[in-house]
Amino acid sequence: MKPTRLISPPGTYFVTFITWQRTRFFVVESYARLFLRTIYGYRRAGRFQLHAFVLMPEHVHLLFTPAADVTLERTIQFIRGGYSHSFGQRFGKHKEVWQKGFTDHRIRDAARILSGIASISTGIRLSAG
Fold first, then answer.
1. What is the pLDDT along the chain (129 residues), one digit of tens a residue?
2. How many domains are there within the chain?
3. How far apart are CA 45 and CA 101, in angstroms?
4. Which end of the chain has the lower number of beta carbons within 10 A, N or C?
5. What is the DSSP-derived secondary structure letter of residue 38?
6. Closest Cα to residue 103, out of 65, 61, 69?
7. What's the CATH code of the domain at 109?
8. What DSSP character marks residue 11?
9. How many CB atoms lie within 10 A of CB 37?
10. How far apart are CA 29 and CA 32, in angstroms?
11. CB 70 within 8 A of CB 47
């Protein structure tokens, strides 16, 4: 059984999450644009600092720092939940959008931030460590 945690420590994170059953949602331009509106809206609201991201057909990589009063888990809830809610309202489709869970790596120094940005720009996952 995978260990769970209650709350992640503050910091910068490289996060990956996947669409439901790896459905290629983001090949549909209107679905991708809605995702961009979602993350930019939460960024403008001050929920997190967005350093880099890539939106792939069936998954998302983000490098971000949650606001001081927002946990990593809550940030993911804002993004995924906000997108799912908007998706249902806009397209009238109330279906699963995201797989359960997500993968995260806490960034501990500037070199790891640069590694995360390079990973996002090339589509290669950040190695553990």
1. 555 555 677 889 999 999 999 999 999 999 999 999 999 999 999 999 999 999 999 999 999 999 999 999 999 999 999 999 999 999 887 778 999 999 998 887 656 666 656 666 665 554 444
2. 1
3. 24
4. N
5. H
6. 61
7. 3.30.70.1290
8. S
9. 14
10. 5
11. yes
How far apart CA 113 and CA 126 sit, in angstroms, is: 10
**Domain assignment present for 2:** no
Containing domain of residue 100, as a range? 12-122
Integer Cα distance of 50 and 61 in angstroms: 11
Tokens of 114: 């640069």
